[in-house]
Amino acid sequence: MTRVLQPYFILKNVMQRPYNFSAGPATIAPEVLAQAADEMLDWPDASGKRCGMGVMEMSHRGKEFQSIYEHAEADLRELLSVPSHFNILFMQGGGLAENAFVPLNLCALGSTDGTAGTADFVVTGSWSDKSQNEARKYCQVNIAATNAADGHTGMPEPSTWKLTKGARYVHLCTNETIHGVEYQTLPDLKALGSSAPLVIDFSSHVASRRVDWSRVGLAFAGAQKNLGPAGLTLVVVRQDLLGHALPICPSAFNYKTVADNQSMFNTPPTFAIYMAGLIFKWLKRQGGIAAMEQRNMAKAQLLYDTLDTSAFYFNKVHPACRSRMNVPFFLRDESLNDAFLAGAKAANLLQLKGHKSVGGMRASIYNAMPLEGVQALVDYMREFERTHR
Ligand SMILES: *Cc1c(COP(=O)(O)O)cnc(C)c1O
After folding, report:
1. SS3 letters for the chain?
2. Chain-wide mean pLDDT for the chain?
3. Are residues 191 and 302 in the same domain?
4. CB-defined site of ligand 1, < 6 Å
5. Do 260 and 296 share a domain, yes or no?
């Protein structure tokens, strides 16, 4: 006997969910989860006609999934204003796997004999450090700049980067999820005298703000922060960068192969693409990326203002490069950390513990975290301060 949950029942329950500040996998808008629940057993097409299958049960080559895929791609292209000379690839492997796939695909770029050259890395925190470490397996690595000396709390000015002449690409993590530092504008490599394409890891702030594609060669992101469930990896790549992979690059992760087959060289993560597609529709209903960017600024300002005006809490990141998505913060009296987290949980504010390498607290306030969630956090913080000062 199957029991089918009615949408109103699900909605009523999901709307009273706690606020989840996880860094990833992260919170998803309740109405998106409710829609997925409603469609789980029997997916309806755009006209509302049910097809008798759930999305997980469909062939990726059938017309139902084709339509899910095409809508997801078109909506993402529209939302992020991706120009037509870029391909959108829906892949697997996550952000860390891209640390290998990027050099495998790009480090022979521009060479006459197909051999690997040098890639420049700007190291601004744990994620870009992992990227440069992995790339060493495939190519020469030059650390063009690092903010390690200040504990990853600032961003090295592009004018100070030591770029390699003839570098195959320049890697930048535009939002360091663990340290909470974010580039507010993308560097103009041409103006810095480099003709290399810029590769950005935008895993933890994709779709939270607009992207200046004129400065980007390739962007990648794991989906589980701002685009949906884990298992889907987004790659946006300029077409002239396709077709230069090293011979050892696995076919399923050769960007040209993936692009030539509309991300269907192998079975793509169909359910994760479907979920991302629901989130893209939700983002459009919210007013698109420019509207999200405004909201994200307001959310971040509320939280940083609270930290900056308090003698009880603090944030270490230089104000000019504070992340709008990931806000690490500390209690001056660290012996209160456990009480702070226990009280937060009791107040329905979840997953605020900081990354183990940084300590303290971290509030990740991605697109799906409403202003009310940040307000609830700030109210709790003030109350905790008042009762523990
Ligand atoms: C989460 C994250 C990753 C890692 O993604 P996985 O899917 O776990 O491989 C990479 N880069 C950044 C900036 C991230 O925030």
Report:
1. CCCCCCHHHHHHHHCCCCEECCCCCCCCCHHHHHHHHHHCCCCECCCCCECCCCHHHCCCCCHHHHHHHHHHHHHHHHHHCCCCCEEEEEECCHHHHHHHHHHHHHCCCCCCCCCCCEEEEEECCHHHHHHHHHHCCCCEEEEEEECHHHCCCCCCCHHHCCCCCCCCEEEEECEECCCCEECCCCCCCHHHCCCCCEEEECCCCCCCCCCCHHHCCEEEEECCCCCCCCCCEEEEEEHHHCCCCCCCCCHHHCHHHHHHCCCCCCCCCHHHHHHHHHHHHHHHHCCHHHHHHHHHHHHHHHHHHHHHCCCCEECCCCHHHECCCEEEEEECCHHHHHHHHHHHHHCCEECCECCCCCCCEEEECCCCCCHHHHHHHHHHHHHHHHHHC
2. 95
3. no
4. 24, 94-96, 127, 173, 177, 201, 203-204, 222, 225
5. no
